[in-house]
Each structure stands twice: as C-alpha cells, then as structure tokens.
Amino acid sequence: xxxxxxxxxxxxxxxxxxxxxxxxxxxxxxxxxxxxxxxxxxxxxxxxxxxxxxxxxxxxxxxxxxxxxxxxxxxxxxxxxxxxxxxxxxxxxxxxxxxxxxxxxxxxxxxxxxxxxxxxxxxxxxxxxxxxxxxxxxxxxxxxxxxxxxxxxxxxxxxxxxxxxxxxxxxxxxxxxxxxxxxxxxxxxxxxxxxxxxxxxxxxxxxxxxxxxxxxxxxxxxxxxxxxxxxxxxxxxxxxxxxxxxxxxxxxxxxxxxxxxxxxxxxxxxxxxxxxxxxxxxxxxxxxxxxxxxxxxxxxxxxxxxxxxxxxxxxxxxxxxxxxxxxxxxxxxxxxxxxxxxxxxxxxxxxxxxxxxxxxxxxxxxxxxxxxxxxxxxxxxxxxxxxxxxxxxxxxxxxxxxxxxxxxxxxxxxxxxxxxxxxxxxxxxxxxxxxxxxxxxxxxxxxxxxxxxxxxxxxxxxxxxxxxxxxxxxxxxxxxxxxxxxxxxxxxxxxxxxxxxxxxxxxxxxxxxxxxxxxxxxxxxxxxxxxxxxxxxxxxxxxxxxxxxxxxxxxxxxxx
Length: 560
Hints:
Domain Aldehyde dehydrogenase: 56-512
Strand order of the largest sheet: 14-17-18-13-12-19-20
Largest sheet: 7 strands, mixed
GO biological process, one term: aldehyde metabolic process
Organism: Tetrapyrgos nigripes
Active site: 270
InterPro entries: Ald_DH/histidinol_DH, Ald_DH_C, Ald_DH_CS_GLU, Ald_DH_N, Aldehyde_DH_dom, Aldehyde_DH_NAD(P)
Strand content: 15-25%
Number of helices: 15
C-alpha cells in the first residue's frame, strides 16, 4: 500500500505502456491503454479522433436508453431499500478501487493524489454514506394538514410526495471527473431514477475505469456509462430524458438546453464565469494559534492563492480576479503583493520539484495544448505586472501560478473566464466601486461564487445586498465545497439548479401533491355546478371579494 504523502508517491512503479485488461463479464470488456499518448481511431462520422477506450455505438446508446426506460417503468428503483443499497455500492466501488481512480486521474490530469482524495474521492464516499442515512427523512410523505387554513379542507388528507422524475442523463466534464460525474449520480439514485453517465472523453483513463467498474457494483438495468465524444453526446441529446444534469461551459450549456427544450426536459446547469474576490484593505489577521504569523492581507493572499492553484485553476469556483479597494490605505496593495509572493514561495519550496516539473507533488498541468496556448496568449497580451510566477513549459503543458498587479479593466485577462492559474489584481477606489464593477453589464454574467475578505459586517452586508452570485463566501476560497449542508449552484450565466446531498436529490425528483376529497362535502359544494345563478355566485364567489388586505408602506412592510 502506497502512502499518498510519500515524496515517491507519483507512481514510480507504474509502467505507463502496460495494458490493463478488465474482466470480460461486462460489455466494456476492452483493453485500456494506460499511455500518455492516446491511440487514434475512426469516429462514426469517419473523422480521426483520440481515444483510450472503445466508444459506445449509436445503436447501443439507443438500446441503453430503451432498457433504462423499461427498468424505470417497472418501478424497481422506487423502494428506499433498493436505492440505499445502490448508493452504498457506489461508495464501496470507490473505497475498494480508490488507488485505480487516483492513478487514472493522475494520468489524465497529472493531478496530485492529495487533491484527488481531498476534493473528489473522499467527498463522494462521505456524501454517499450521508445520502443513504438521510434518504428516508428526505423521502417522507409530507402531511400538510396543520398548514391548512380553510377548516373544511382539513379532512382532505393533503399530502406531498417526492417522486423520481424518471431516466436521467449526467454529462460530466474533465477537470474534476470523478466528483462531477458521481455526485449527480448520487442524487439520481437517491431520487429513484435510472441514469446514464457520460464522462468526458478528455479524462479518458478515468472514463474507462468508470465504464469497467459501474457494471460490477451497480444494477446495469438502471445505471450505465456511455463513452464517447461530441458525436455520442449529440446522439444522447436526441433522445428524451426526464432530467439532464450538465457541468461545463455556457456555450455547450446552450446547446444542451436547446436539445432538452425539444422534449421539455428540465436541466441542471453547473457552469462557471468570472468569480471575483473583494478584499477589504482593513482585513485583520485572527489569532492563528501559532500556525503562522501572517498579517490579515497576507492570510487573504494565501487563501486566494490556494483556491487558484487547486488543479492549476481549472475549476469553476477558482478565484478569477481580485478587487482591492485601496482608497485611504496605500499600504494595502504592498502588503497584499508581498502576501502572494510569500504564498508562492511556501507552496513550492526549493527542495521539491517546482510547478513546471511533471514530478511536482502539489501542482497539476494544463489539460492540453489548446488550453495551454489560450492561457499563454492571454498572459502575453496582459499589461499587468507579474509579482510571482509567470514561467511556463509548452512541452509539459505547465504554467506557474501567476499573479499580476496593476491590471486594468480592459486587460486581456478580464475579457472572459480565465480557467487557469492566472490571477489579475485590480485596484478600485471604494467598496461601492468594487460592487459596481462586479455587477456591471460588461462582466460575463453573474458569478458562480463571490469571495469577500473582511472583518467588517457593514462591508460584507454592502457587498451581499448589492450583488448577485450563486454563492457568496467570506474569508476563504474553495473550501466551501466541503460544507454538506448548503446548496451549490449558479445563477443566470453561471448556471441553474443546485446540488450537494438533499439538493441533488431534489433536482432529480419532483413534488407530487395529493388531496382526497370526501363524498360528504357534496351538499356544501352543490352550488359549483351549472347552471350558474346569482344565488350560487353569492354563495361561492362573493366571500372571496371580502378579503381584508393589510395596510403596508414601502418602509414598514407587513406587520404580522
């Protein structure tokens, strides 16, 4: 058993050219080529594409869809006991194969094992167990009798049931391939849905292992993995689903939404955008209990730097830019700048491989040459002043975490989501200026996350009440994803819908209401039937016109 904290961890004992052959008791029984250089094969459109496993054929996609629809209609997925078992089987799949998943993600992304376990494997296992434990509470029939205001309706047995929507489709991205495919799946299973998981072809090693293991642990008649790229995803979107859960960018989200609209299929969209950080120049350092002796702004820089370097900034919640209201506090800029330099030095000590090395134990590569070129171009065009980082290596697809000061609003780094380890810092006059900057129509929609560093309740209140974002997080970055009790999701351009535990369950289920009207009320409601008369109007309609509307003013509201 290897130790993920060992300096020799990055799989020095793994032969990258070996063939690992899955057992042949499932339909994905094909060799997985664990090689940094994928082989080429012809797509169903005749074009050459990169792949590491066989893609699912169009005929098989149709067959899977039909089979899952049949399974759902049988209602085998509805009993809570069945759902709980499948959920815990998913947890067992991860626990019994965690090394293989970590190895696959290392091969796909060169992501440090620490990040894979901290941000993907462990959270999914924990949330699987919590989901199984809490599911019976979520699924309870809601008795609404005590909320009924009309006395004669209290005997009508008003109930609200949580019902599964049907057959779901999860389309996952490459950047956090495990949690962003399996967390939605948890919600689908919990709700009683059948589900197809379409992992990203870019994370091909992970996708191959997922396709191999899902049939071994989960009921194949209810849950399937479809492998493929654009053609296969397009085929999936031609079919009618009862819910689609997509994580990715807004361009593809529009395509998915348009396809879903043809069938009136509801969608959950977890997108991204430019997530800003607003730092109060008067942010003070707390008692750090001897861990370190950072100033307030240095601590803010350290926490922002952490959020930006995780997976080399290739995550939707990464801080995209920093706003520093410096009016009346000239030293704040200098202190924050030194904080970022210190964060860079402490993250990459001189006695360890640096961020440009493939053997770096703490830093990921850029996913491919296209993204590397895009980021390099943005960085080269920027007029900002680099205070740390700035170097890159095209051969290894690596870019150092780079922080730039003196960036202007029209800079190349401010035109869209950077989605990489590049962080521009802009000065503004006041917190009001920062708020106006964030909500300006020139920005790329509402941010997924707005980070605010401040000890001042009025400062925080001013930002919260005058901005719109999917989440607003105070005094740290990224770590909010570990909180199981709050929903995660965007608004507008950054997404729609919510996830994490119960919130994911609610995305894949719907509220089915019920009342049972007793026969004994027939004399009371006899006047509802035609022919309508003045007497029936006075009895059935006139009382509604006598409702008393409480007095209010714009400043006082309703006094209860």
